[in-house]
Amino acid sequence: MTSNNIQAAAPTVLLRSDGEVDEETLAYAREKIDAVVGRPGLPAATGEVRIARAAAHHADRPWTATAALHVGRREVVVLAEEATGREAVDQLQDRLRRQIDKATRSGHNDHRTAAPPWRGGPGIPRPADGSGQTADAHPA
Prior knowledge:
Layout: E1 12-18, H1 23-37, E2 45-53, E3 63-71, E4 74-82, H2 85-105
Parallel strand pairs: 1-2
Antiparallel strand pairs: 2-3, 3-4
Helix pairs in contact: 1-2
């Protein structure tokens, strides 16, 4: 039976698993991901987190955790690889928190240089009106 009771305010981050991922690791991942995206002051987050365990027994780091999220108007993509599921989730949480903080702090004007003085930007201050000098005056 489906329900029409959808919470629009709750972040919608899907958690998926590939391979032999136990329920304990998935619950731990859900707790950590909710702690990152559910912080107060952050825009709503949507996207997907995948936890995968490689079938190859000879792999050094068989656990991978990837996140592809939209936080507000920014996209955040994070990858973590570790030897255990908990380590991969912890590393993903740390990297995700850093990337989300970086994405929410950056604005559209961060990479622009200041306008030159002839276009109204900061420059040499002009004399105030009524100081006796005009902009066209030259010393004799």
